[in-house]
Amino acid sequence: MATKPVKYQLKSILGVAFGIAVGIGGTIGVGILRTPGDIAGLLNNPWLIIACWVLGGIYVLLGVGSYAELAAMLPKAGGAYNYVKRAFGDYAGFLTGWFDYIINAISPAYFCLVIGEYLVMLFPPLKDLKLIISLTLLILFTLIHLRDIKTGSIIQQIASFTKVILFAILIFSLFVFSGVKSHNFSDQDVSGSIVKGGILIAFLKSLQLIVGTYDGWMGACFFAEEDKNPGKNIPRSLFFAALIVMFIYVSLNLAFLHVK
Predict the structure, then answer these.
(1) Contact between 12 and 148 (Cβ < 8 Å)
(2) Mean of the per-residue pLDDT values for the chain?
(3) d(CA 260, CA 184)
């Protein structure tokens, strides 16, 4: 007598809170701490700088609309892999899936290295332990997520909430303690680069950097199959996460300009 094949499925236990958390956590990172300085070096106009960050957020919101519809239509784990495979076939889906995997595998390692660098800056006696600190953090995060999806979900929500609170404190502090003057980027010799390449090229290059800083907003789509109600939760997660990130990025740049 033939046995019926067992069908394995992912547990559908995630919700909107996790979707928002993974969107925020996957987007806000090293980029927002380093990119504003690069943008200031390209554009010597506060209005153009803020316009770039707003346009970058609008660009992401347009992408959110498309991804929300696709995730609701194909609520499967893997994100863009499913959509590309459905539209262009197995080969294109295969390449997309591996590309996403490589990027998502490299990013945590890079983040751990940066965390190690910042810890060494805060605590100089640890300068010889930078690599060990980075590897320890990477192993720790891996072990946390190996346990189960529920534990990983809780940790992700706590980490993302903490990140939002810390950025809110930073933004508030920059506005309140505006008497503390930082380096004035308006005094930098950036006119040469703008004249040489044109203000339009400088603006477009800045926008490219900003779009890269927003990268990661589609994180909730990778967990669509594990969501309790992906048809409703994934679109809400994508939009709320994108709006929160956009608000933080624009507010932080306004705060930087306020104390310049």
Answers:
(1) no
(2) 82
(3) 5
Q: What are phi and psi of 14, to 5 degrees?
A: -90, 160
User: What span, in angstroms and rounded, lies between the C-alpha atoms of 32 and 112?
Assistant: 16
* DSSP-assigned letters across all residues of 42-67: H---HHHHHHHHHHHHHHHHHHHHHH
d(CA 254, CA 260): 10
pLDDT, tens only, 159-187: 888 888 988 998 898 888 765 554 454 44
- Determine phi and psi for 141, rounding to 5 degrees: -65, -40
CB count within 10 Å of CB 40 equals: 23
Res. 149: pLDDT tops 80: no
SS3 content of the chain, % helix, strand, coil (to 5): 80, 0, 20
Q: Which of 17, 15, 12 is nearest to 241 (CA)?
A: 17
Give Cα separations from 157 to 20, 122, 146, 150 (angstroms). Answer: 8, 26, 16, 11
Q: Which two tokens stand for residue 109?
A: 């390692």
Per residue in 228-256, pLDDT tens?
Answer: 888 889 999 999 999 999 999 999 999 98
The residue type of 63 is G
Provide the residue type at 197 as one letter: G
User: 134 by DSSP, 3-state: which?
Assistant: helix
SS3 122: helix
The C-alpha angle with vertex 110 and arms to 107 and 112, in degrees rounded to 5, equals 110
CA distance linking residue 131 with residue 120, whole number of Å? 10
**pTM of structure:** 0.80
Euclidean distance between CA atoms 10 and 68, whole angstroms: 20
- The rounded distance, in Å, linking the Cα atoms of 243 and 18 is 16
